[in-house]
Amino acid sequence: MDRKPLKIGDLTARIPVIQGGMGVGISLSHLAGSVAANGGVGILSAAQIGFREPDFEEHPKEANLRAIQSQLAKARALAGGGIVGFNIMVATKDYADYVKAAVKAGADLIISGAGLPEKLPEYVKGSNTKIAPIVSTEKAAKVMLRIWKRKYNVVPDLLVIEGPKAGGHLGFHREQLEMFTDETYAQEVKKILAVVREIEADSHKNIPVVLAGGIYDRADMDRALALGVDGVQMGTRFVTTYECDADLSYKQAYIDCKKEQIGIVKSPVGMPGRAIFNTFIKHGSHKIDKKCLHCLEHCNPKEIPYCITRALIAAAKGNLDEALLFCGANAWKAEKLEHVADIMEELK
C-alpha cells in the first residue's frame, strides 16, 4: 500500500521521508538532491558546510555562508523540483546569520535543534521558507510551541520528534537515554502528539509531525506511523548510499561495525552523542594546536579535549583514525552500499 504524502504547508513530499541532516559534510548536495528527486525531503547540514572551500581555515564563516548558497543550488539541480532544505543547529556560532543565509539562498525548509530555536520565526519572517523545530520530550514540545505562539503568534510548519536512538548529538541527558525503552518512548511520542493536537485546535492550522531516531527500514517506518505521526526522518540508512557525500571509508565503517561497537560518547561541548567506538574515541583527547574554526557558540578551545569540527571533517574525508564517527543506533545493520532510489522504493 502506498504511503500518504507528507504535506508541509504548500509543499508536498510524495513519500513521507525526510533525510536527516548530517554534518560535517555527510549530507550535502548529492545526497539531499537525490532524496528530493526520489520523492522525499532532502536536507543539507549547514554544520561547517564550507569545509572544502579554499579559504575555510582562514575565514570559516564566510566559506560556510558561501557554501550554503552553492550547495543548495547543486542540490536543486539534482532534485527535479523536489523539496530541499537545511538542518541548522541552534548551538551554531552566529546561528542567525546561517539561517538568514539559507533563507536568502531559497531553502524550502529549515529544521533546527541542538537547543530550542526560540527566535527562528524572527529570522525567516517575510520568506517562504518553512520552519521545523526538533524536540525530544513532551516538556520541550510544550515550551517550544508556547514560546512561538506567545512571541510571534506562529506555529511550526513541521515538528520533528528525535528519539533516543538517533545519531550524533542527542536531546537527552544520559540518565534519560538509559531510562527510555522502545515502549516508554512510544508513550512519550503520543504525549508530544497530544500537545501538538492541542495547539492545532487552538490555531486552526495543521502541524505535520515526523519521528526520527532508530528508523532504518520499512518495518521501523510502519511502527512509527502506527503511533500517529505523519512521516519519518532517517539519517543513518542514507549514509551507506552511493549518493552520500561522505568518503567511502566512512560508509565502510558503518558496514563493518558491530552492534556492541556503537555507544554514547560525551562531545567536547558536554552534550551526549552516539558514535562508533573507534581508535580516536578509545584514545580520548588530542592536542589542539590549530586555530579555532568557530563552530559552536559555547565551545571554549582552552577547555575541550579535542576540536569536534576537525574530528568530524576527518570522518567526512575518510581519515578514520582521527575521526569522530557519529551514527544512529542501527548503523550495525548496514551490510552494503545501495542507491537512494532503492531505499525510497522500499519505503514507499
UniProtKB/TrEMBL annotation:
<keyword id="KW-0285">Flavoprotein</keyword>
<keyword id="KW-0288">FMN</keyword>
<keyword id="KW-0560">Oxidoreductase</keyword>
<dbReference type="GO" id="GO:0004497">
    <property type="term" value="F:monooxygenase activity"/>
</dbReference>
<dbReference type="InterPro" id="IPR013785">
    <property type="entry name" value="Aldolase_TIM"/>
</dbReference>
<protein>
    <recommendedName>
        <fullName>Probable nitronate monooxygenase</fullName>
    </recommendedName>
</protein>
<keyword id="KW-0503">Monooxygenase</keyword>
<dbReference type="Pfam" id="PF03060">
    <property type="entry name" value="NMO"/>
</dbReference>
<comment type="function">
    <text>Nitronate monooxygenase that uses molecular oxygen to catalyze the oxidative denitrification of alkyl nitronates. Acts on propionate 3-nitronate (P3N), the presumed physiological substrate. Probably functions in the detoxification of P3N, a metabolic poison produced by plants and fungi as a defense mechanism.</text>
</comment>
<dbReference type="InterPro" id="IPR004136">
    <property type="entry name" value="NMO"/>
</dbReference>
